[in-house]
Amino acid sequence: MAKAEWQRHWHHLRGEVGDEKQRLRSRLPSFKSREEMEQTKRTSRRMDG
């Protein structure tokens, strides 16, 4: 019984670590898109004159 509980706990921990990695990975493209947004803002300002 205790072993099964420990395994469940371990899988939960591994799942959290996976979520953290996923969060970091999903955070990386946001920097890129933010830079792209800044560039498009600059170009749109240029277009507005």
Account of the protein in words:
It is a single chain. This protein has 49 residues and is an all-alpha fold. It has one domain (1-45). It has one helix spanning 2-48. The longest helix has 47 residues, at 2-48. The mean pLDDT is 75.
Key structural traits:
mainly alpha; 96% helix
Short description:
With 49 residues, the chain is an all-alpha fold. It has one helix spanning 2-48. It has one domain.
Number of domains: 1
Rg over alpha carbons: 21 Å
Low-confidence stretches: none
Number of helices: 1
* Total DSSP E strands: 0
β-strand percent reads under 5%
Question: What is the makeup of the main sheet?
Answer: none
Q: From N to C, what is the helix and strand string?
A: H
Give the distance, in angstroms, between the N- and C-terminal Cα atoms: 72 Å
Integer average pLDDT? 75
Shape: rod-shaped
Instruction: Assign a percent range to the helix content.
Output: over 70%
Structural class: mainly alpha
Q: How are the SSEs placed, and which strands pair?
A:
Elements: H1 2-48
Region (Disordered): 16-49
Biased composition (Basic and acidic residues): 32-49
